[in-house]
Amino acid sequence: MNTEQELKNVVKERYARIAQQGKAGNVASCCGATTSSNKVYNIMMDDYTGTGGYVEDADLGLGCGLPTQFAKIEKGDTVIDLGSGAGNDSFVARHETGPEGKVIGIDFTPEMVQKARANAEKLGYNNVEFREGDIDNMPVNDDVADVMVSNCVLNLVPDKQKVIGEIFRVLKPGGHFSISDIVLVGNLPDALRKDAQMYAGCVAGAIQKEAYLQYIKDAGFQQVVLQKEKPITIPEDILGKYLSDQEIADFNKGETGIFSITVYAEKQGNKAHKPKVERAELQNREACCTPSSGCC
Length: 296
Description:
Shape: globular
Number of strands: 7
Strand order of the largest sheet: 3-2-1-4-5-7-6
Radius of gyration: 19 Å
């Protein structure tokens, strides 16, 4: 498991299976890729309860934050969700951008794309689409998105600098992103760092926090802000699959830390003015565009 393509194949194969798993098993493991913990229910994800646009059927429990909460999405925005999975964050973004906006979800696992499309069709959302493709080579033209969001996905991509460069390319001048991801402070034990399950589990593929933030600045982004940070604790019954009791004790008392961070940054330029849409017109659109109306 040395080459970039081999790592991608591992992730694609794992997430094809994860697409068919239940949420309970995913949140009690590392991104659904490792065995589940018997001690901790929720290892990484944040609680979506009460979040506007939340769709339970689209929530596979694979996130490590709530990037849409911090993304400053406005009505009429075009939003791109990187690593969109079954569509949950895309649907939350759709709630914020409204029917006059547009949401594009990108995922390279066909099973996830199929699941997300089925959810969108069931909900009757005509302004949400899902595209199959790599986020380090997005199937999107330049200067398309007002906002980009992503939830615990960049750590799964071998070339993170390339992804960040793609984000810069696809954002409009004046656009911005809010991304939740896993980063490290200090070095992981070799047994964790080299394990395929831990890579697909959003841990072994994570990079140093300072390097992550520096990549964003080097790409040309400005106003880089750490919006949220929380430590991630891997339960001992999962660590025990990889480490001895002494190694677990050393790991837990050492200087190494695994963190979920949510980062905001802007692409320089003036954001294009969106034409105003009258409230009455919006209400008429909502009334028309229902799953049963058949008029859209």
